[in-house]
Design goal:
The structure holds two protein chains of two kinds.
Chain A: H1 2-38, H2 41-45, H3 58-66, H4 69-100, H5 104-115, H6 119-131, H7 138-162, H8 166-174, H9 179-190, H10 192-208, H11 211-216, H12 224-227, E1 232-233, E2 236-237, H13 239-259, H14 261-268
Antiparallel strand pairs in A: 1-2
Helix pairs in contact in A: 1-13, 3-13, 4-7, 4-10, 5-7, 7-10, 8-9, 10-14
Chain B: E1 4-13, E2 16-26, E3 31-35, H1 42-50, E4 57-62, E5 65-66, E6 77-80, H2 92-102, H3 107-121, H4 136-148, E7 154-158, H5 166-183, E8 186-191, H6 194-200, E9 203-208, E10 211-216, H7 218-223, H8 228-233, E11 240-249, E12 252-257, E13 260-263, H9 269-272, E14 279-284, E15 289-293, E16 303-313, E17 317-324, E18 327-334, E19 345-350, E20 356-359
Parallel strand pairs in B: 3-8, 3-9, 6-7, 7-8
Antiparallel strand pairs in B: 1-2, 1-4, 4-5, 9-10, 11-12, 11-14, 12-13, 14-20, 15-19, 16-17, 16-19, 17-18
Helix pairs in contact in B: 2-3, 2-4, 3-4
The chains are: A mainly alpha, B alpha+beta.
């Protein structure tokens, strides 16, 4: 008995040691980013790096005062919300059809769009949107973000829709629903966990998107990841500003993700276990 | 209430014919049971009546209306599913009232009908629970309740008892029969369980490989099966089929199987004439045999001698698995005074008027 207890203790020690080792890398980067934002410019380029210092909030103030950071935050919020909403509106029915009518092939095509390197879209898109006079508009940015968010919503949701027994819809159709109505009032409420997960994921991916926004946005629609780029100018890199801005970008989504982490894990492991 | 008519209904899935020219007429207030082994097309037939599957060809009528192109919701039917298909996100009350709500019934009437159904099924205390919090039997009741609040013309049941344990199944069987009498409704009930079919049906429709084999009252199909399939499907344990030759000996007909020979009753003769001298299949039900100790005398002369291989004692009755020459035979008998022993030699008297003879080529019943 004692031996078994010892083995158990050893196992959990090893587990936690492993977990900590895995977390150190990513967390260090994260902590470094926040520290950079809290240091002055001189402290930031000091060598060896200073770990003990008096934090300052000046950089954060500067981000809002010297740059239009609030406006960029609003741009990001608007574009991410629109992209998420639109990908749900299109992705939910698409995923439902793929699951219900076993259209795996169409699913693959959607996935193919997601797997193509994004850089290859940039030039054609730039030309198309310039002809349409849509450069520096919410429309262009929202639409391009769909290439990321829509496949994500569709693919996550297929598994959820497949888990809804077909008999429930049969019952609903006999009880007086049309196919659309049974989708809306029977099927959708049953996959709400999946909708929440895919919406959150879509939002985060759109929020963090840099490449498309860099090329297709302009002064009016610049998003926060691109705005960070402003801190790099010819001959000077404002590390303190970048650190503060990056912290501000990551903060809302991290707080949000922290509160909904259970839903996300549930959603992503869907189908792994029988409920 | 209404009758249901299927005329030459065919259902093809790609290259597979699931239902083949099915023509049946189910009368008003009848308890019709479609029965057959899995894959025989019975559930597909039911789903076509419900409108959940389109027909490939043929016509379906409910009442006087041709419903081929009518949506399920407009066919005035209710269906109970094998897995109950209760809406998981609604409580029992909302599950029961859902169909009426969709049809825009006034709230007061919905409440009243839900109460009525809850009274009939004794599920009052469950009304505010979610399906997840119910046992299998309770879910089954709610599923039935959801059908009866609608007061439809026709009730469709798709293997509703398959997911229940044996004891509950027997109880629900009786309850559904009672419900049928109380509601006076037309019921179409699909099952693979011939016991359910025999005990509940006013008429049985036996299906095999997409085609109707026979229809009739339970006792009728039991006593006069139309072919070898029906004979083997109805009754438990199944009828024994023995390869034999029909032999004419002077003025009588005799079944000559390897290992035994029995004389057929006079009433059979007329129909047997064309088959004289030909190979046939001799069918005898386990319950139409009486086994006794081979050493004891007596018997009716139509006796075969066999060795007991397996003896299953169920209490009131005993199943004996016998070997007689090349044949394996099951006999069902009342529990004997002295327990039978494995290896014991038994004399088995056949109740000849109750035996059957099938055409070996077509499997159709000769007698």
């Amino acid at each position: 008995m004692r031996k078994r207890a010892a083995v158990k203790a050893l196992k959990s020690t090893l587990f936690y040691a492993g977990a900590v080792a895995l977390c150190v890398g990513p967390l260090f980067v994260f902590v470094w980013m926040i520290m950079t934002g809290l240091k002055t410019g001189v402290q930031n380029i000091a060598y060896p790096p200073e770990f003990i210092f008096t934090p300052t909030l000046e950089n954060f103030q500067a981000v809002f005062q010297q740059h239009h950071f609030f406006r960029y935050l609003m741009n990001s919020l608007i574009i991410a919300t629109l992209a998420t909403g639109l990908s749900l509106a299109l992705g939910l029915p698409a995923a439902y059809s793929i699951a219900k009518y076993r259209q795996g092939r169409i699913g693959m095509i959607i996935l193919l769009a997601r797997m193509t390197p994004f850089v290859s879209y940039l030039l054609p898109w730039y030309i198309i949107f310039r002809h349409l006079k849509l450069i520096d508009t919410y429309t262009a940015l929202t639409l391009t973000h769909l290439i990321i968010t829509l496949p994500m919503v569709a693919w996550l949701m297929v598994a959820f829709f497949e888990s809804v027994p077909a008999e429930l819809e049969d019952a609903a159709m006999i009880d007086g629903c049309s196919r659309l109505k049974s989708f809306l009032i029977i099927v959708l409420p049953l996959v709400r966990n999946g909708i929440a997960t895919s919406a959150i994921m879509a939002f985060i991916f759109s929020w963090n998107q840099f490449l498309f926004s860099l090329i297709l946005s302009g002064p009016q629609t610049k998003t926060v990841p691109v705005a960070v780029y402003n801190f790099i100018s010819y001959g000077k890199i404002d590390w303190a500003g970048i650190g503060a801005a990056a912290t501000l970008i990551v903060l809302p989504v991290s707080v949000f993700a922290f509160f909904v982490r259970k839903t996300i894990v549930q959603g992503l492991t869907m189908g792994a276990l029988k409920d | 209430m209404a009758n249901v008519i299927l005329k030459n209904v065919v259902k093809e899935f790609k290259s597979v014919t699931a239902v083949d020219r099915l023509s049946i007429e189910i009368h008003d207030r009848e308890f019709a049971v479609l029965v057959g082994p899995s894959g025989c097309g019975k559930t597909t037939a039911l789903r076509m009546i419900a409108g959940l599957e389109p027909v490939t060809s043929g016509e379906i009528f409910i009442g006087d209306r041709r419903v081929n192109d009518v949506e399920p919701k407009d066919r005035d039917i209710a269906m109970v599913f094998q897995n109950y298909a209760l809406y998981p996100h609604m409580n029992v009350r909302d599950n029961l009232g859902f169909g009426l709500k969709m049809r825009k019934f006034p709230k007061a009437e919905i409440d009243q009908r839900v109460q009525e159904a809850a009274d009939i099924l004794g599920i009052h205390e469950l009304l505010d629970r979610k399906p997840k919090q119910l046992s299998g039997g309770q879910r089954q009741r709610v599923a039935v309740g959801r059908a009866i609040v609608r007061k439809p013309k026709v009730f469709l049941f798709d293997e509703p008892l398959s997911n229940l344990d044996a004891k509950l199944r027997v109880a629900m069987r009786a309850e559904i029969s009672k419900l049928h009498r109380r509601l006076g409704a037309t019921i179409i009930y699909v099952t693979h369980d011939q016991v359910e079919a025999m005990t509940m049906a006013s008429r049985i429709f036996i299906m095999h490989r997409g085609a109707l084999q026979q229809s009739g009252a339970p006792l009728e199909v039991y006593k006069q099966p139309a072919n070898r399939f029906v004979a083997g499907f109805i009754g438990s344990p199944a009828m024994n089929f023995i390869d034999a030759t029909l032999v004419r000996e002077q003025d009588t007909y005799v079944i000559d199987a390897e290992g035994f020979k029995v004389r057929l009753p006079e009433a059979f003769y007329e129909r047997l004439e064309p088959y004289a001298g030909r190979p046939v299949i001799f069918g005898v039900r386990p319950e139409d045999m009486a086994a006794r100790d081979a050493a004891a005398g007596g018997g009716n002369g139509n006796t075969l001698t066999a060795r007991a291989d397996v003896v299953e004692t169920l209490g009131a009755e005993t199943f004996v698995y016998l070997t007689c020459g090349p044949h394996s035979i099951v006999a069902r008998m009342e529990a004997p005074e002295h327990p039978l022993e494995v290896g014991q030699s038994l004399a088995v008297d056949l109740k000849m008027p109750k035996t059957h003879i099938f055409d070996k080529e077509t499997s159709q019943t000769i007698v």
